[in-house]
């Protein structure tokens, strides 16, 4: 007993054993110091955790902003980029169970700090291929690369062409192919993103529970709300950083920028995608430093030492320190928990409201994740915008709209004291009107650019034959051209030609971006124009396209807000229709299902569908298909928006089923009482029971990778 008493005194007095005759005076002083230490410690942890949330949100959203840059830099397809994007979820799933179980028993702040280091290592690994792949090489006619040799693009007289322009020695080709194997370095990007997922895993479960255990009960919800608010700010800076880096040429600092003959509007343009990852990696390192100096345990607030409403984990730790359970008792408890697992799972999946809501959410997240992942690509290809402008628009307009929508949903729930049925209606209404607005985007697309041999024939009519075969015509039949090249030029007739050779150009003047091609036989045949010159780069989209882009932005912002309003009511519906002792288990199944059935597959099959709309594929130097150079705008619009809407419509049907089940289970009296917070459609509950875990409710408004699913 004496040993136990000393241990308890030692634990609660911060390593100070007090003399008996001065205990009254010392206990007041100790209590005051403990209160200050508790408040100071938890606020330091709160600041550090908020910074970590900002760092992980920034790096996650920056990855979304560089999707098209990575695709072009590594010459890979959209479906493969989808696999890279989904690798984050795979990394997270690999250790989520281990971290959640063992992390609570170990030094939580240091585990979070280690996670930050792993996350930063993964972020640095993503950028590493840039330093080993050599300089970025894009397709350009020799005379546009500051060449001193005047070469005819058409190459009718092959004797005037240097050997290096037509036939490279086999040794050089082989050497080039060995270098080209560096394009497989996209694997490092995938592994880096996988590491990011592993490093991010402990941040949310261990960080939130640490706050829940050591914060004053009435402040816990506020603290968690602050952390989630900061998590929404991260993506804004992530996309703005993506916008800045996309303006800079990929090899900035390594090449003379005056020699670069492409502009950010060119589909071959690759920005300094790697630079943002270095910045994000440094931020992650800095974010992890404070956690190595934080204690394993903080002094518990006086109000929570003997509180019966303390968190489940707090009670577990307190009981463990007081009772020192034997190994036999622990094994018996573990066996009992394992025995209860299947009945709990059966009870959970036997709840029709939970199952239907889970199905509705999984399908909706499939549509939203796929839509958001390829939104930058859609804007670039559909409206002819640069990557820089696209990321700027998403970061500055769309993400704040989502944040405001989430806040509005919670405010509406609180102001009108909405019950279970009301939450179901609000969630359903939000989805219905959101997807209805999305339907209007079908009418806000741009027509295909006029590209000779791809979207229009050389005679000005729609091509009827195979696209690749249509690249050749009578006007360029005397030229030695390759159908695999992509070096677009804009003719004076407003038509884009795949290359100067395929345009039948006989001469050129100038160098670099200022190159002008003359005597282009194919340019002259269209509309019987005598003018037959062309300039480097593709022609601009139609005059109506900028106006359509403006309409798209307005509808997109309203849609983002509308869909986000239903987020909080949906989570409250989920929590209120589950037995209290199954809530943690239900949320775990929910998170797992979204990651496995939406976060991983959605980017992949959306990418596969988008690849089917490609009109002109790039080709790698050693053969094989590269990244897509030109998409069919109309087909891309129907596939991208159509797939999103089909999935959204299916999710609405499940949401209607949820509402129908709730109505069937509730009586008119229950609905009235539910509005007053006394009784819900899922069973009788007191208001205290419904809102007893307000911190958990605020936490539940955060879903996996929410900051990047905007």
From TrEMBL:
Membrane topology reported for the UniProt record: Multi-pass membrane protein
GO cellular component, one term: basolateral plasma membrane
Species: Struthidea cinerea
GO BP: any one term: sodium-independent organic anion transport
CDD domains: MFS_SLCO1C_OATP1C (cd17459)
Transmembrane segments: 40-59, 80-104, 110-132, 220-250, 270-294, 354-372, 392-412, 424-444, 548-575, 587-610, 639-662
One Pfam family recorded for the sequence: Kazal_2
Location within or outside the cell: Cell membrane
InterPro entries: Kazal_dom, Kazal_dom_sf, MFS_dom, MFS_trans_sf, OATP
Alphabetized UniProt keyword annotations: Cell membrane, Disulfide bond, Glycoprotein, Ion transport, Lipid transport, Membrane, Transmembrane, Transmembrane helix, Transport
Sequence ranges assigned to domain Major facilitator superfamily (MFS) profile in this UniProt record: 45-666
One of the record's GO molecular function terms: bile acid transmembrane transporter activity
NCBIfam families per UniProt: oat (TIGR00805)
Protein name: Solute carrier organic anion transporter family member
Record-stated family: Belongs to the organo anion transporter (TC 2.A.60) family.
Principal location: membrane
PANTHER family in alphabetical order: ORGANIC ANION TRANSPORTER (PTHR11388), SOLUTE CARRIER ORGANIC ANION TRANSPORTER FAMILY MEMBER 1C1 (PTHR11388:SF99)
Superkingdom classification of source: Eukaryota
């Amino acid at each position: 007993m004496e040993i136990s008493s000393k241990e308890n005194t030692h634990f609660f007095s911060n390593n100070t054993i007090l003399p008996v005759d001065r205990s009254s005076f010392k206990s007041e002083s100790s209590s005051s110091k403990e209160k200050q230490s508790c408040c100071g410690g938890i606020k330091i942890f709160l600041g550090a955790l908020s910074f970590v949330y900002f760092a992980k949100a920034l790096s996650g959203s920056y990855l979304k902003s560089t999707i098209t840059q990575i695709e072009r830099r590594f010459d890979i397809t959209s479906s493969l980029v989808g696999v890279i994007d989904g690798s984050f979820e795979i990394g997270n799933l690999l250790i989520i169970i281990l971290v959640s179980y063992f992390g609570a028993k170990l030094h939580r702040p240091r585990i979070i700090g280690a996670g930050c280091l792993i996350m930063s290592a993964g972020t640095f690994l993503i950028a590493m291929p840039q330093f080993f792949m050599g300089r970025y090489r894009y397709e350009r006619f020799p005379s546009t690369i500051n060449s001193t040799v005047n070469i005819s693009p058409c190459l009718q007289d092959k004797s005037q062409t240097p050997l290096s322009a037509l036939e490279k020695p086999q040794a050089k080709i082989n050497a080039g192919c060995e270098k080209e194997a560096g394009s497989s370095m996209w694997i490092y990007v995938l592994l880096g993103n996988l590491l990011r997922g592993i490093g991010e895993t402990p941040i949310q479960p261990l960080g939130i529970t640490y706050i829940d255990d050591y914060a004053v009960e009435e402040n816990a919800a506020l603290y968690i709300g602050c952390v989630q608010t900061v998590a929404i700010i991260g993506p804004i800076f992530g996309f703005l950083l993506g916008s800045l880096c996309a303006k800079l040429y990929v090899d900035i600092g390594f090449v003379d920028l005056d020699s670069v003959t492409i502009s950010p509007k060119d589909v071959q343009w690759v920005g300094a995608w790697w630079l943002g990852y270095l910045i994000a990696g440094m931020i992650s390192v800095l974010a992890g430093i404070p956690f190595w100096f934080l204690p394993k345990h903080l002094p518990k607030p006086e109000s929570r030492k003997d509180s019966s409403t303390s968190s489940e984990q707090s009670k577990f730790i307190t009981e463990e320190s007081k009772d020192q359970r034997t190994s036999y008792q622990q094994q018996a408890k573990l066996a009992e928990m394992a025995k209860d697992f299947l009945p709990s799972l059966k009870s959970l999946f036997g709840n029709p409201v939970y199952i239907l809501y889970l199905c509705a959410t999984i399908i909706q997240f499939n549509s939203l994740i796929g839509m958001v992942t390829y939104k930058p690509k859609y804007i670039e290809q559909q409206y002819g915008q640069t990557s820089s402008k696209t990321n700027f628009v998403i970061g500055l307009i769309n993400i704040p709209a989502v944040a405001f929508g989430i806040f509005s949903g919670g405010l509406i729930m609180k102001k009108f004291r909405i019950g279970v049925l009301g939450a179901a209606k609000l969630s359903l209404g939000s989805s219905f009107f959101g997807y209805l607005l999305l339907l209007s985007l079908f009418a806000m697309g741009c027509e295909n650019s006029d590209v000779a041999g791809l979207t229009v024939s050389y005679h000005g009519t729609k091509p009827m034959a195979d696209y690749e075969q249509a690249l050749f015509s009578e006007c360029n039949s005397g030229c030695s051209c390759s159908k695999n090249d992509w070096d677009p030029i804009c003719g004076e007739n407003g038509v884009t030609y795949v290359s100067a050779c395929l345009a039948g150009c006989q001469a050129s003047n100038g160098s670099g971006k200022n190159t002008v091609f003359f005597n282009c036989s194919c340019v002259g045949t269209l509309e019987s124009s005598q003018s037959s010159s062309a300039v480097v780069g593709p022609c601009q989209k139609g005059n109506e396209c900028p106006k359509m882009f403006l309409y798209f932005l307005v509808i997109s912002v309203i849609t983002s807000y509308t869909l986000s309003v239903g987020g909080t009511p949906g989570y409250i519906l989920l929590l209120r229709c589950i037995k209290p002792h199954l809530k943690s288990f239900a949320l775990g199944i929910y998170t797992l299902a979204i990651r496995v059935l939406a976060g991983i597959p959605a980017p992949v099959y959306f990418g596969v569908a988008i690849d089917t709309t490609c009109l002109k594929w790039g080709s790698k130097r050693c053969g094989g298909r590269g990244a897509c150079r030109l998409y069919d705008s109309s087909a891309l619009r129907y596939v991208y928006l159509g797939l999103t809407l089909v999935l959204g419509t299916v999710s609405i049907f499940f949401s209607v089923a949820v509402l129908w089940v709730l109505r069937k289970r509730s009586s008119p009296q229950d609905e009235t009482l539910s509005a007053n917070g006394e009784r819900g459609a899922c069973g009788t509950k007191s208001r205290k029971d419904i809102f007893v875990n307000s911190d958990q409710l605020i936490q539940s408004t955060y879903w996996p990778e929410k900051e990047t699913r905007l």
